[in-house]
Each structure stands twice: as structure tokens, then as C-alpha cells.
Specification:
- The structure is a single chain.
- This protein is of the alpha+beta class and 105 residues long.
- The chain has one domain (3-88).
- The protein is built from two helices and five strands, in the order E-H-E-E-E-E-H.
- The protein has helices spanning 10-19, 83-88; strands at residues 3-7, 23-25, 31-33, 38-57, 60-78.
- The strands form two sheets. Strands 1-5-4 form a three-stranded antiparallel sheet, with helices on one face.
């Protein structure tokens, strides 16, 4: 099952993934994914507001949806989690009803 994460910043996401045991710091100081997990960094998410605006595309008017940013930095993980991991990971609860991306399961 895809687990949806959200933090307020990239450094906060990085630290949560390390504290949660999803990543470790290797000998070169880089983040390395722990075996048994999959990770998908999404970043910022934008959703349509339901409004449209007219813009010119190649000299032709085109109606485009008005987008707004969903607060936070987003990532997904896949893998088994202990209660201790769940307590430190910034898991979205409830999960999104219509997520932008999920892992094929």
C-alpha cells in the first residue's frame, strides 16, 4: 500500500525519512534507500481550482485551468512500517482521496 508523506520543507522530509529508517546516510554522506522500501519524491503538488483563464498559446486564445499549490512537500513510500516508524514519519491521515501518484501494487 502506498504511504503518503507531507512536510513543510525538503530538509524536514529528508530528516523524517532518515529518522523513520527509510533512508540511511552512507559512507560518502549520501542518502541511501534501505532495502525493502520504494520511494517516490513528488515535491510540490498543484490542483485545479475549478476556474479557467484565457491565455494565448501560439497566438491562439486557449482556456486553461487555474491551478493552486497544495501546501507542503510530498513523497510516497512503499514497504512495511513498524509502529515506531509510523510515529516519526509525516504520514498524511487521512490519505488523499484522489492521489496524484501511487505505486503499482
Amino acid at each position: 500500500m502506498t504511504i503518503f508523506l507531507r512536510t513543510t520543507s525538503i530538509p524536514e522530509m529528508r530528516q523524517a525519512l532518515i529518522d523513520g529508517g527509510i533512508f540511511v546516510i552512507d559512507g560518502a554522506g549520501d542518502m541511501a534507500l534501505v532495502d525493502g522500501y520504494s520511494y517516490d519524491f513528488i515535491g510540490r503538488i498543484y490542483k485545479a481550482t475549478g476556474e479557467v483563464e484565457t491565455v494565448e498559446v501560439g497566438g491562439t486564445p486557449s482556456e486553461e485551468p487555474v491551478m493552486e499549490m497544495v501546501p507542503g512537500w510530498h513523497a510516497n513510500i512503499l514497504g512495511p512500517l513498524t509502529d515506531a516508524q509510523r510515529s516519526v514519519l509525516p504520514i498524511l491521515d487521512p490519505p488523499p482521496v484522489t492521489p496524484e501518484r501511487v505505486f503499482a501494487e
